[in-house]
Amino acid sequence: MSTPVTQLQHHPRRGAQAMLLSLTCFSGNALLLKELASHRHVDPWMSMTFRAVVGLVLTIVLFAPAGTLKLRRSFQSWLLASRGVLGALGTAAYYTTIGPLGAGKATLIGNTWTIFAAIMAAFVLHERLGLVKLGGILLALSGLSLLTGLAPGTVAQFGHHEMIALTGAVLAAAVVVVIRQLTRTETSATIFSSQCIYALLLSLPLAASHFTSLNTMDVVLLLAAALCASVGQLAMTEGFRFLSVAAGGAFQMTVPVVISLSSITLFAEPFTLAQAMGGVLVLWGSYHTVVGGFSKKAAAT
């Protein structure tokens, strides 16, 4: 049974627990995707297809019996359809760049969704955008320029993979804001299933010709990555039901740290000194952006 809307903002502990589960699963998903893309040469559209199918099946099994899943609404509600389309495109951006950029760098760029979400939330949801958040945004953008090589006179170094990853971050920010609006009227299962449906519509035609090239281990790793992604997404969606965009984003700060360190250790992912400094600034700036409204939110609850 879904929690009544009037009670959504009175369970910060439940929201924190959901966010911790999501960051653990997202970290595992990213490392598995890196292994699949770089070492097993599995097409990223295949990974996305498995994610969509597993996510949809998991959602149906867990929530359909309780009556909290309304699949038809993904085509009836423009807001749900927007969540599905934006989520599918954002996922595609991440999945297609994690191989060439590396799990750490792709995730750090993608993590800038927090600053874009804070800006969008200020205009759409009227969440406060104060000096602390603005300072964090500037720090994160400065770090992004170092991380991607985008600096005055060096625009040519900003490759198309970086551009795709950054576009994915903007799309992810839009998704978070849409989810925040949807939690007032829709269940977590219905919200998540919309992404699965539209992601499957996008990826399946592109992955269809690669199914015969998969071996048993490929399938096992694809299923594991898809399960991590599905559980992580469901947990994040549930977390945002009880937390503001800013507060929920604060819990996601650990994800790029764990992924980057693990990717360096397991895959010898290279980071120059400038990129490492940029990554630190992105995290520092993103942290200040999201926690600018966290302490007041926590105090109020």
Quantity of strands, as a count: 0
Number of helices: 14
First CA to last CA: what distance? Answer: 23 Å
Task: Summarize the helix and strand pattern as letters.
Answer: HHHHHHHHHHHHHH
Largest sheet: none
Low-confidence stretches: 1-8, 151-157, 293-301
Tally of domains? 1
What is the radius of gyration? 18 Å
User: Helix content range of the residues, please?
Assistant: over 70%
Protein structure class: mainly alpha
Strand content: under 5%
The gross shape turns out to be globular
Mean of pLDDT: 83
Characterise this structure.
The chain is mainly α. The protein has helices at 12-39, 44-63, 73-76, 78-101, 103-110, 113-124, 131-148, 160-182, 188-207, 216-242, 245-251, 254-267, 273-291, 294-300. Helix 2 packs antiparallel against helix 9 and helix 4 (78-101) crosses helix 9 (188-207).
Quick take:
The chain is an all-alpha fold. It has helices spanning 12-39, 44-63, 73-76, 78-101, 103-110, 113-124, 131-148, 160-182, 188-207, 216-242, 245-251, 254-267, 273-291, 294-300.
What structural keywords apply?
disordered C terminus; about 300 residues; globular; single chain
Topology:
Elements: H1 12-39, H2 44-63, H3 73-76, H4 78-101, H5 103-110, H6 113-124, H7 131-148, H8 160-182, H9 188-207, H10 216-242, H11 245-251, H12 254-267, H13 273-291, H14 294-300
